[in-house]
Amino acid sequence: MSATPEQFAATGTLDVEALRAEFPALHQEINGHPLIYLDSAASAQRPAVVIDAIADYYRHDHANVHRGVHTLSDRATRAFEAARERVAGFINAAATHEVIWTRGTTEAINLVAQSHLRPRIGPGDEILVTWMEHHSNIVPWQLVCEQTGARLVAAPVTDAGEIDMAAFERLLGPQTRLVAVNHVSNALGTINPVARIVELAHAHDAPVLVDGAQAAPHLQVDVQALGCDFYAFSGHKVFGPTGIGVLWGRETLLDAMPPWHGGGEMIREVSFDGSTWNELPFKFEAGTPHIAGAVGLAAALEWLEHQDRTALAAHEADLLAHATHTLSEFEGLRIVGTAPHKASVVSFVFNDIHAHDIGTILDHEGVAIRTGHHCTMPLLRHYGLAATARASFSVYNTRAEIDRLAAALAKALTLFR
Amino acid sequence: MDRLQQLYREVILEHSRRPRNFRRLHAPARCADGINQLCGDRLRLCVNGDGARIDEAAFEGAGCAISIASASLLTEAVAGRTCDDALALADRLEQALSGTAPEDLGALEALCGVRAFPTRIRCATLAWRALRAALHGETRPVSTERAPNTPDTRTWTKTSHDVRPDQ
Ligand SMILES: [Zn+2]
Question: Which of A305, A334, A360 is the last residue of a domain?
């Protein structure tokens, strides 16, 4: 999962230039400089095969799914359901119908919050999250708390940016009705010990939802090995389209959940006396779905699975090590998030230059990074920060690009100091 | 000078490093909070005066160089002006930054480098939106995500959004 630079040297088979050539958006100039895209944690770029798959679908195969007897409808339905199967394989789901299409991670979490949790909890019950959750793994639970009188509890994070597991354990109890935790932190890069968290939570009969938005592009996700109960991720962070995402859930849990959106597709029979629900996974998929999104996501996952994923992981680990080392050389720069197990994300602050100014100066040099609170305001508040600069690396980035990042930072310092 | 040097002029950097009137004003000063969602700039702007004229303006907060420099310049620019005059200056600045009016801004012209950086205009206008809110007695924090608060007919002496020292 997290390969070391030594492993990279040992494999060293990745042809990054050839891989970069597959991503059309990378080959452009920004403000007179070659684009250096270091914001893949916000959204990755897409390889041409994904863009082509979406275009081909619309050019040749589009019709509504699960509706018509005509050829196009059949083709669209087959492509749509084949995409679901691809996702099931990608995360090693026990059954394809455990894969529910959503608009993204956020919607997947809201689905679990409203359909699974809301009917089951009340005053005295608790939902346990951590300080390092994205707002989308905080706010849906806060809504449920408002609706039911339950309480949201958050486990603290250490200075290095790891979940304080002793504190986490202390916060678990019979009152804990669900644990919701990110697999990889978007703001810090920390890879969290999800299997251990699941073990602890299950000892208290609390199901675990994993926000996998940042993990899917970096790790080989196996929901059965993790032992979790729900897993959510988004298409656009894993080289697929925006507007499509996945909720995986255990069949027994999904079966027991009522639908949360009403409409077409999710019903078996409708009359004014009442309606009966369709079976999994359609029960949760009201309305015409994002068929092209599913097709594009399947193309992205197929592309990813055809890569040497060990080599990709080793390359990302090498980029992380190089970036960490390079940035540490800067006087007055502090890396926020120094856990030993990290995905290729480096958040940093300067003691005298605001992240926002860094972002503008870097953009002027063609370097795209993210600046701000990264939708993790509680976490940054803990570190006494309002904003950080975040460089996130994907398989298509290079050491040379990190050196260009460093050169652009040096320019910012000259301007400011 | 390239675009970047236009943005980070010496006067901007100097104000961001050593902001003027960076302090809290106590009651009966009128205060308003401004938040820039994009980058987390967050400041509280306060004004003291007799209701018609601003005697002093001050601010506190944290943010990028542009937002801090703009707030600092604001406190110098509006002190001694009538409220109407200060609001008119805020309008002129916003128009100049969006390129819809000529620059005639005195010291504030230093802020005009942001015109080449559309994502940073909100940093430059944050303090000015807070000024409007303070003068109009707005009680909610102003966000640069929203359109400027439309002036209402209340005057800032009649409403009672006074900031207590402990707030
Ligand atoms: Zn700003």
Answer: A305
* Interface residue of B4, B5, B67, B114 to substitute, partner A, most A CBs within 10 Å: B4
Distance from CA of A266 to the nearest CA of B (A): 37
Q: Based on the residue annotation, tell me whether A375 is a catalytic residue of this protein.
A: yes
Q: Does A36 reside within a domain?
A: no
Chain A CB contacts of B65 below 8 Å:
353-354, 357, 416
Q: What is the A342 CA–ligand 1 centroid distance (Å)? A: 29
Nearest to A356 among B4, B13, B123 (CB): B123
Ligand 1 center–CA A386 separation, angstroms:
11
Global pTM reads 0.91
Give me the helices (H) in A99-178, please.
105-111, 139-148, 165-171
Cβ–Cβ under 8 Å, residues A354 and B39: yes
* Distance in Å, CA A356 to ligand 1 centroid: 6
Report the C-alpha gap between B125 and B111 in whole angstroms. Answer: 10
Of the residues A187, A346, A375, A379, only one is catalytic, namely A375
Do the domain assignments include residue A45? Answer: no
Q: Cβ of A82 under 8 Å from any chain B Cβ?
A: no
Two structure tokens written together for B160: 């009672």
Instruction: Determine the topology of domain B3-136 in CATH.
Output: Sufe protein. Chain: A (3.90.1010)
Examine the pLDDT at A276 and tell me if it is beyond 90: no
- The pairing of strands A176-182 and A126-130 is parallel
Does A354 sit within 8 Å of B64, measured CB to CB? yes
pLDDT tens for chain B, residues 1 to 167? 688 999 999 999 999 999 999 999 987 889 999 998 877 789 999 999 988 899 999 999 999 999 999 999 999 999 999 999 999 999 999 999 988 877 778 899 999 999 999 989 999 999 999 999 999 887 677 776 544 443 333 333 322 333 333 33
Q: Any CB–CB contact under 8 A between A317 and chain B? A: no
Q: A266 and A173, same structural domain?
A: yes
Are B39 and A361 an interchain contact pair (Cβ–Cβ within 8 Å)? no
Taking the alpha carbons at both ends of chain A, their separation in whole angstroms is 41
Distance of CA A198 to the CA centre of its chain: 19
| Residues 6 or more apart in contact with residue A71 via CB below 8 angstroms | none
- Let me know: does B74 contact B36? Beta carbons within 8 Å: no
Is residue A271 predicted with pLDDT exceeding 90?
no
Residues A110 and A166 in one domain: yes
Q: Scanning the structure block, which residue is given the tokens 């793994």?
A: A137
Percent of chain A scored above 70 by pLDDT? 97
- Looking at residue A314, which CATH number applies to its domain? 3.90.1150.10
Q: Is the ipTM of this complex over 0.85?
A: no
